[in-house]
Design a protein that fits this description.
Oligomer: single chain
CATH architecture: 2-Layer Sandwich
GO molecular function: acetyltransferase activity; dihydrolipoamide branched chain acyltransferase activity; lipoic acid binding
CATH topology: Chloramphenicol Acetyltransferase
Strand order of the largest sheet: 4-1-5-6-9
Radius of gyration: 16 Å
Cofactor: (R)-lipoate
Largest sheet: 5 strands, mixed
Number of helices: 2
EC number: 2.3.1.168
Organism: Photobacterium aphoticum
Structural class: alpha/beta
Protein name: Dihydrolipoamide acyltransferase component
Shape: globular
Number of strands: 9
Strand content: 25-35%
Distance between the termini: 20 Å
Number of domains: 1
Length: about 130
């Protein structure tokens, strides 16, 4: 899977593509992202690094906001928006506990996948994030 990562910069919005994202571990993704953001800041990133994304990840929560309705950019099939982490009081084993929640939004192209497929994708994403 090739994932576009939305990066806001003083030069505008860039969406570089992490190709074969499933072959990276967390440290590899972090290293790729740090290097890519530096290339964007220095305007040294090549045009080929913006091609062939299947899905985009947009972290609007880094700026502000909990939820959004991100727009899919064809020919991509979906975009996942990440809101700002917020604290929530909940009961765990009948004990009031403060937990962090991460709001996620997803927009997808019904011509490319069904609502059930999109829901299963989001469920798998949430399960993966909860394990980390």
């Amino acid at each position: 899977m090739n994932i576009g990562i939305a990066v806001d910069s003083k030069h505008g919005l860039y969406v570089p593509v992490l190709r074969h994202a499933d072959s990276y571990n967390n440290q590899g993704i972090r290293k790729w992202l740090n290097r890519t953001v530096e290339e964007i800041r220095n305007r040294k990133i090549g045009r080929e690094q913006f091609q062939h994304a299947t899905i985009t990840l947009s972290n609007f929560g880094a700026i502000a906001g909990l939820y959004a309705t991100p727009v899919v950019t064809p020919p991509q099939v979906a975009i996942v928006g990440v809101g700002r982490i917020n604290e929530k009081l909940t009961l765990i084993d009948n004990t009031p506990t403060q937990i962090n929640t991460l709001p996620l939004s997803m927009t997808f192209d019904h011509r490319a996948c069904t609502g059930g497929e999109a829901a299963r994708f989001m469920k798998a994403l949430v399960q993966h994030l909860e394990q980390e």
